[in-house]
Amino acid sequence: MRFRPLIVSTIALALLPLSGPAYAEDPTPTPQPSVTQTPTEQPPPPPSAEDSPDPESADPDSKVEDGLGVDGGTERAIVELTHPAETAPVATQAAAESVDVVLQPQSQPFMVVEGTAEELAKLAEDPRVASIHRDRTYTPAEVAPSLSLIGADKVHAAGNAGAGQVVAVLDTGIDVDHPWFKDRIVAQACFSATEDSGVESLCPNGANAQTDGDAADAMTPKCLLDGVNLCDHGSHVAGIAAGTGGVAPGAGIVAVQVFSRLNDEASCGEPACLVAYESSLRQALDYVRDLNQPIAAVNMSLGGMLYDQSCDATEEGAIFKEKFDALLAKGIATVVAAGNEYYEGTAHPACVSTAVAVGANDNSDTIAEWSNRGPLLDLFAPGVDIESAVPDNTTVVYSGTSMATPQVTGALALMKKAMPDKPMAELIETLKSTGRPYVYDVSGTQVTTPRLDLAAALTGAAVQPPVTQTPSPGTDGTIDDTAPEPDPSDSSGPTPAPADPAPSASSTPIPLPTVTVTVTVTETAKLPAAVCTRGTAAQKLTAKKWALELHRASGTISDETLGCYLKLIGKSSKVFPELTKASSLGTAYRVLKSPQTRKAKLDSALLTAWLNWAHGTNGTTALAAAEKVRLSSKPSAAALKKATSNILKTVK
């Protein structure tokens, strides 16, 4: 199994396991303001039988995602089936044919297998199999005066703390006995994938799933690494949404652990880190949908591949949209971190049109420099220097869109408490229409995105006047050192320490002040995390020059920046590192310096072009076309040569 680089969108952990089903589009042309997300729209009618492809007549090759196992070895893949009743018989037959069935959810129209390209192709010949694609991973994204900024204090003073409502937090679990959550955890579950290649379950029972007892306990031994709790992100997010010091302190909490522990220093940058598999997320969303609880919203502070337009039409986006629509039909919103890459778009699955995509602002009503932004976003909310709960009954301060997202999740619990008969889609629109408008430029087009304001939404306060924003990174592609940075990760989800996905971290810990909750909290030190964004140099370098930069101490670009670029490439490319390892400076250097075969030459050209993109140049159309050739199971020599030539033209 090949892992994508763990680009942690501050899940919020916008834990970003990274991958998406399609290429990131050119970041320059962004969607026009008129093409906005519409969580209120009804899902389109299902296709008629005449429109739906017949699995029996479908070409088996077309059912398998491009690139699965094309370079040898086994792949972990989700096998979509035509009906839930087919899961058991197809799994039994697959196992008899030596395909390793690693997950067989009950009453679900899919299973997870590990197999070679040949084995997956054989499996695709079964008419009961609709499609086969990678079981992609996600990582956690990056949490004050923020409550007063959004008017939550006024709503609390009016007697609305969200009592009787529930929020569901799909994250890294929760500290079940933390004072911030006393008597308000109403349900727990765990869906945690495993693999023989160093991926371990974080469920207390050690299995792939658990729905009884303290199933989401963030204090299990597998959450610990050298005395540091890797699973602190979920408690922090839950605390912001509905903890004692959170937005809806009277609401109940459904805590769902969706991450697994990955013991792979090459992928993590540390001995271990956390990833969430698509299969785990899908089970968790269905679990929440089927609960008999008055759930207002689901919080997903995590993310994957970057998109600058709606991803509904992609395979991965369509799967999540169906889940989000099913929740919305039950009056449950899905609130997702936009990501922290300073990108004019969002990370998946915030790009799904029926998600509520959330960016981060600071306490001076300014867009956080590292926050993603643009027409895909629904709301901004405070995400800078947010104090909240973490395991061992303590609190710490984090920043990121992961911290902004639960502000909106908690706000929807307050909205549903105040207006229980209003459809959730209308409550979302009310938050958007009463939010303080942030007006800013995206690629020459003016965009307006509201900042959460509960005072205007619930207490009758007037909508605040617009604020003109000018968010921009430094001219050298770096972020202002004085600006608060997402911590603990560089993406939209929570990044557990010490598995910091950010490209660099200072060796000087910053002590946080002692905080008193109902007990005295000990002082906690956290490493500051650098913000990982695309550069602005817009300078094209050749493969030879990039190899010089990647060779330690030989170039002018810092190792931290280069590491960041490789992480961004891993979120935008389907070749790196799915087919070809390029998640570290050493592996990337070898890709550029060792093009012996046709495929290797194309890999070198592709990596050169992706590095130029990360450095600030625009244009990914040629990259997408060339990667399609590289992902083909049997590309001709002529096709590989032409694709390589086309890419090399773009780097001159």
Automatic annotation (TrEMBL):
Residues 466-475 have a biased composition (Polar residues). Gene3D superfamilies: Peptidase S8/S53 domain (3.40.50.200). Residues 20-70, 460-511 are annotated as: Disordered. InterPro entries: Peptidase_S8/S53_dom (IPR000209), Peptidase_S8/S53_dom_sf (IPR036852), Peptidase_S8_Asp-AS (IPR023827), Peptidase_S8_His-AS (IPR022398), Peptidase_S8_Ser-AS (IPR023828), Peptidase_S8_subtilisin-like (IPR050131), Peptidase_S8_subtilisin-rel (IPR015500). Keywords: Hydrolase, Protease, Serine protease, Signal. Residues 1-24 form the signal peptide. Residues 162-434 form the Peptidase S8/S53 domain. This is S8 family serine peptidase. The lineage of its organism: Bacteria, Bacillati, Actinomycetota, Actinomycetes, Streptosporangiales.
